[in-house]
Amino acid sequence: MDKKHHIAIFTTASLPWMTGTAINPLFRAAYFAKNEERKVTLVIPWLSPKDQDHVYPNKISFKLPSEQEKYVRQWVEERTGFISTFDIRFYPGKFSQDKRSILAAGDITEIIPDEEADIAVLEEPEHLTWYHHGKRWKTKFHLVIGVVHTNYLEYVRREKNGQLQAFVLEYINGWVVDIYCHKVIRLSAATQDLPRSIICNVHGVNPKFLEIGRKKNEQLDANQTFSKGAYYIGKMVWHKGYKELLKLLSDHQKELAGIELDLYGNGEDSGQVQEAAKKLEIAIRVHPGRDHADPLFHDYKVFLNPSTTDVVCTTTAEALAMGKIVVCAEHPSNEFFKQFPNCRTYEDGNGFVKAMCKALADEPALLTDSQRHELSWEAATERFLKAAELDNAPAKRLTEKPSSLLMSTALNLQRNLVDASALVHFVGTSFLSSQPEEEQCKELGLAVPSRRWGISSSTIDKHYTNSLL
């Protein structure tokens, strides 16, 4: 490329919160910037002290953004083995306890100066734009690519009045993504269909797990087998697969008599999970959560994952990278993993029993170099570049070029409808979006926004004019 593209990766979480939208975008930024062909900026939320207390584990907190940046860089460099060359910038965020999520405060497009605005990657585009009240992403950036991480519809369906909530949310997600994204990458078909979207797993595995797998291969070559049986690791909340798992075990206690299973995780449903496990005749041990790379897990042979709320389960990929047999549900979220011989899927309870017993009796197949590469972040980056056609990204804003008067009229009508839709969203979010706290603005070097209710007609006119550019 004659000119380096500037890629700004916006995401909804940051370390030390060990969640997928904190970890995967961080690795993406590191590997995008690795060959120095692109200028990369990772844009992450900065939280007030009280929100840090709610979100970050082990009482970790930061007084300044620079302290958190140092923590983030050290974490990723320890795992990749190379110095990260991407920039880190922060936007003001607020933790919503009822949604258990971080929401952006103010117009976060302003974090990237206009002269640097080139390509934006929105990790969780629906989440980042539900309450977005500011410059339109497509106006600010030449190319906007959304990466859909979370199956929000499945989570919502499990709540009270879930079907109605999911119906409304499905419409809202499609609406905001259509307004703000040129292209969308869905990690798997477990997510809802969205405008201009394709399905491609653009996530890789922390290199640490591939190294663990290499060492395990050497041990297996020396006839050192796995000394432990089956386990599951995941946040201990019912919708993370524990409900499905305990029902399968309860329904098939006789067929699975004699097996032992270890569960690892922390979460608000830990007590209930432990009580339910005690009622079964199967030997189930429940433990606090631990880092999946902990040596404690190296000698387990079978990783069990019954969850059907994931989009692409990170721990499943990690288990495969470590050379384990994985037993998981026949579900769109596991489609990527089915290419690996150590992935065993089941469709029902009888299939679960059969897959479980066979996995415990078998020895895992050794990972080939090709299979190991397919799990890596190098391969994930290649898949992203191909799916998003990033190396062919334009140096100017995307515009449709009609080939006839009829097509021109249709495109103008479509563009006007989208512009009108964007205006409706802009006006509506003036009453829903929140402003950053004054202290946050000072810590980030941002202008303190004026406090006002509603928006002026001149602001609406300016936004609508910008949306036509």
Automatic annotation (TrEMBL):
<keyword id="KW-0472">Membrane</keyword>
<keyword id="KW-1002">Plastid outer membrane</keyword>
<protein>
    <recommendedName>
        <fullName>Digalactosyldiacylglycerol synthase 2, chloroplastic</fullName>
        <ecNumber>2.4.1.241</ecNumber>
    </recommendedName>
</protein>
<keyword id="KW-0732">Signal</keyword>
<keyword id="KW-0150">Chloroplast</keyword>
<dbReference type="InterPro" id="IPR044525">
    <property type="entry name" value="DGDG1/2"/>
</dbReference>
<keyword id="KW-0934">Plastid</keyword>
<dbReference type="GO" id="GO:0046481">
    <property type="term" value="F:digalactosyldiacylglycerol synthase activity"/>
</dbReference>
<keyword id="KW-0328">Glycosyltransferase</keyword>
<comment type="similarity">
    <text>Belongs to the glycosyltransferase group 1 family. Glycosyltransferase 4 subfamily.</text>
</comment>
<dbReference type="Pfam" id="PF13692">
    <property type="entry name" value="Glyco_trans_1_4"/>
</dbReference>
<dbReference type="GO" id="GO:0009707">
    <property type="term" value="C:chloroplast outer membrane"/>
</dbReference>
<keyword id="KW-0808">Transferase</keyword>
